[in-house]
């Protein structure tokens, strides 16, 4: 049994209350929070600490999520943690997004947010503790009612039982809510788990397939107007003047107002607002970024890659060892700028009154949004209510340090003096949003007579996503943005290389960049796993066996490699015209290996099958883990085979899925996911399926065609 002692029982007592005839459990986790971030506004004081559950008199157990559900499955996984310790009737579980307040802060980042593949592992203790605390109070209440000792009481499926006496949780909730909480609670031994680790159907699926689930786009109430914004065609451009006459003549247009991001057309509905924007005439001062050009940027990055950069990691004498290596491979890899392109475009609804501001949006950054709202409206943070809706995809785009979409919507509603839903079209976001930076890697690897790497010089060039954000103090050290080099400087392949040097350039370009699903691993895994394959080929070694040697001291990486290779039938026969490629990568505390089976059809790369093995520690909901591997592979294949952004004359050239291509349904390979049984420290799941797929495919293509493709998206040379 695991025992957790409440370090702040006095605070707990202050915040335990009876709500609607039921029991509310607030809870705090020992040692929560290691980093303090600068926040845009003082924190509000309500609601109760961190997160809580409610047990109603009707036996419902309502779990409030301190994180946002955006498809990753925490609407189910986090309630599973509470239900396990509570011995709840799973059919009576309900879920709500928690309101925005610092008491719902992430246990590490100390702000309410969803990202970094961290929701489940960061809540693993405190959500179980909440369930255990509620169960303990229900047991006490039942013991009093039954006139027995608590030790004589047991719980099962939403009931408290003592001999022949039974009481439902709902019957006991009010009495339990009046009791002082115990000083400590005991958590179940993993061998006794009945819910955790069992494949469980998602609780949000019925709502989504029936249309009952509310996304930001679904928000509507009487008097709500809709706005679209004419934003700068070039990053950093500003409005010189505008003519709104034609826009105002469009039926349904109510107002045309200037806001910091551009000019907003406010109307009765979206179509009127869009037609009004189409008729709007804006004269722009294009500013210093009007000459941005993809080709020139790529060449600039390439030139930087050939010069000394800031040192991210070094050991021994890389240059000297490379000069003495039996064989040297030098290669340059490149990846383009990428958009997040979530299926639901950005949107935010705002209603401002003299005493209150309400925001409805699918957000990953509640704390930032609330602080920005306080600053713009002049209200106190506790007067700002953020209603988190379901997110139709996020991938990092709904987690901007500037809260750009929310900030803009606040300015629009304030200027219009009316409740307004500000809507971005997909074209708006693709052309005027935030992006994954392009990167260029230049690598020189030296091998000994045995073919194994003994020297490594690696230069990374790409924009920093952290400089200028509240995360800079925590994650940028000596000028090194850790997210730019993660997956390289900490690669298990390099731990055994005695002479190595990792360098970084972080040029500024005027293009706004942001974390993108799997962050730095989205490009570093492609480079590292491709280079390892190049070394294996040069040594005449089988790629899996070569990796086994390099990973012999890294059991979790080796474990997923062996599992994926076995399940894929590595070394076995394949249909004519197909080849396999492999990649294994650690990110966000989890270990993933993938084997891709590839062919070439009509000059284009086709992926038929992907075998994926993951070790994420405890898999709370294996069904959700498998779904996230499929999701990550689809997302990663889009970047590997289709997606790229280009700039010309300062403007993004792509606009929607017809030219910013993503994987189509008929291109999706068969995916088989195998989860390593593990009691190791839990890692993330939402992003870790992305990094290995591009190199696995590239490695298969090299076997199949003899072409080593070092640039994404992968394009065969004719």
Descriptive labels:
alpha+beta, 718 residues, 5-stranded mixed sheet, globular, 30% helix, 7-stranded mixed sheet, disordered N terminus
Structure characterization notes:
The chain is 30% helix and 26% strand. The radius of gyration is 27 Å and the shape is globular. α19 crosses α20. The strands form ten sheets. Strands 13-14-11-22-19-20-21 form a seven-stranded mixed sheet. A five-stranded mixed sheet has the order 2-3-4-5-6. It has a five-stranded mixed sheet with strand order 16-28-25-24-17, with helices on both faces. The chain contains 20 helices and 34 strands. It has 718 residues and is α+β, with helices and mostly antiparallel strands.
What does the secondary structure layout of this molecule look like, with pairings?
Blueprint: E1 2-5, H1 9-15, E2 18-19, E3 22-27, E4 51-55, E5 61-65, H2 74-86, E6 93-97, H3 119-146, E7 154-156, E8 159-162, E9 165-168, H4 169-177, E10 184-187, H5 205-210, E11 225-231, E12 238-243, H6 245-248, E13 253-259, E14 262-267, H7 270-279, E15 281-285, H8 294-305, E16 310-315, H9 318-324, E17 327-335, E18 338-339, E19 347-353, E20 356-361, H10 366-377, E21 384-388, H11 404-416, E22 420-423, H12 426-432, E23 435-436, E24 439-447, E25 453-462, H13 472-475, E26 476-477, E27 480-481, H14 482-485, H15 492-495, E28 499-505, H16 521-539, H17 543-550, H18 555-568, E29 579-587, E30 590-601, E31 604-615, H19 622-641, E32 647-648, E33 651-652, E34 670-675, H20 693-705
Parallel strand pairs: 5-6, 11-22, 20-21, 25-28, 31-34
Antiparallel strand pairs: 1-10, 2-3, 3-4, 4-5, 7-8, 8-9, 11-14, 12-15, 13-14, 16-28, 17-24, 18-23, 19-20, 19-22, 24-25, 26-27, 29-30, 30-31, 32-33
């Amino acid at each position: 049994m695991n025992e957790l002692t409440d370090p702040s029982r006095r605070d707990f007592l202050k915040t335990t209350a009876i709500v609607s005839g039921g029991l509310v459990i607030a809870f705090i986790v020992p040692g929560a929070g290691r980093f303090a971030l600068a926040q845009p506004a003082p924190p509000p004081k309500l609601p109760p600490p961190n997160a809580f559950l409610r047990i109603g008199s009707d036996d419902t157990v309502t779990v409030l999520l301190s994180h946002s559900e955006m498809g990753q499955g925490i609407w189910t996984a986090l309630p599973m943690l509470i239900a396990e310790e509570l011995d709840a009737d799973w059919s009576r579980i309900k879920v709500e997004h928690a309101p925005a307040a610092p008491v719902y802060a992430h246990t590490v980042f100390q702000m309410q947010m969803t990202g970094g593949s961290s929701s489940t592992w960061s809540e693993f203790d405190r959500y179980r503790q909440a369930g255990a605390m509620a169960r303990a109070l229900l047991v006490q209440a039942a013991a009093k009612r039954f006139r027995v000792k608590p030790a004589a009481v047991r719980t099962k499926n939403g009931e408290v039982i003592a001999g022949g006496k039974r009481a439902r949780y709902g019957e006991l909730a009010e009495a339990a809510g009046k009791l002082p909480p115990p000083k400590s609670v005991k958590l179940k031994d993993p061998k006794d788990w009945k819910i955790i680790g069992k494949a469980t159907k998602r609780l949000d699926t019925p709502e989504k397939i029936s249309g009952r689930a509310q996304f930001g786009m679904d928000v509507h109430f009487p008097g709500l107007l809709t706005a679209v914004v004419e934003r700068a065609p070039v990053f950093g451009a500003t409005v010189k003047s505008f003519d709104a006459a034609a826009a105002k003549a469009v039926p349904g247009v109510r107002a045309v107002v200037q806001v910091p991001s551009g000019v907003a057309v406010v109307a009765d509905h979206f179509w009127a607002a869009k037609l009004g924007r189409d008729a709007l005439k804006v004269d722009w001062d294009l500013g210093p970024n009007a000459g941005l050009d993809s080709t020139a940027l790529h060449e600039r990055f390439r030139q930087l890659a050939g010069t000394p950069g800031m040192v991210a990691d070094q050991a021994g004498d890389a240059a000297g060892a490379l000069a003495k290596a039996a064989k040297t491979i030098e290669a340059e890899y490149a990846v383009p700028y990428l958009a997040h392109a979530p299926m639901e475009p950005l949107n935010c609804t705002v209603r401002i009154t003299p005493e209150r501001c309400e925001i409805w949006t699918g957000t990953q950054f509640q704390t930032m949004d609330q602080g920005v709202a306080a600053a713009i409206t002049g209200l106190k943070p506790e007067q700002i209510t953020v209603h988190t809706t379901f997110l139709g995809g996020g991938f990092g785009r709904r987690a901007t340090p500037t809260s750009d979409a929310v900030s803009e919507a606040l300015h629009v509603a304030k200027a219009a003096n009316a409740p307004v839903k500000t809507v971005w079209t997909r074209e708006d976001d693709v052309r005027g949003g935030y992006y994954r930076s392009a990167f260029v890697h230049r690598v020189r690897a030296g091998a000994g007579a045995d073919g194994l790497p003994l020297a490594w010089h690696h230069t990374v060039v790409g924009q920093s996503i952290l400089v200028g954000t509240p995360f800079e103090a925590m994650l940028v050290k000596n000028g090194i943005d850790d997210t730019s080099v993660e997956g390289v400087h900490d690669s298990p392949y390099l731990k055994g290389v005695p002479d190595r040097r990792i360098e970084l350039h972080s040029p500024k370009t005027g293009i706004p960049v942001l974390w993108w699903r799997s962050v730095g691993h989205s490009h570093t895994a492609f480079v590292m796993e491709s280079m390892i394959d190049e070394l294996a080929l040069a040594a005449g070694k089988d790629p899996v066996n070569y990796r086994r040697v390099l990973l012999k001291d890294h059991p979790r990486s080796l474990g997923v490699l062996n599992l994926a290779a076995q399940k894929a039938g590595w070394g076995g026969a394949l249909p004519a015209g197909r080849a396999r490629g492999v990649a294994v990568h650690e990110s966000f505390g989890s270990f993933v290996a993938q084997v891709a089976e590839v062919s070439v059809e009509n000059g284009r790369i086709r992926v038929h099958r992907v075998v994926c093995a993951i070790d994420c520690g405890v898999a709370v909901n294996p069904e959700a883990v498998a779904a996230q591997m499929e999701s990550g592979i689809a997302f990663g294949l889009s970047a590997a085979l289709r997606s790229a952004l280009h700039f010309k004359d300062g403007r993004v050239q792509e606009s929607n899925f017809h030219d910013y291509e993503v994987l189509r349904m008929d291109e999706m390979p068969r995916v088989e996911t195998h989860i390593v049984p593990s009691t190791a420290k839990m890692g993330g799941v939402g992003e870790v399926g992305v990094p290995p797929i591009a190199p696995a495919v590239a490695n298969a293509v090299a076997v199949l065609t003899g072409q080593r493709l070092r640039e994404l998206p992968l394009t065969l040379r004719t």
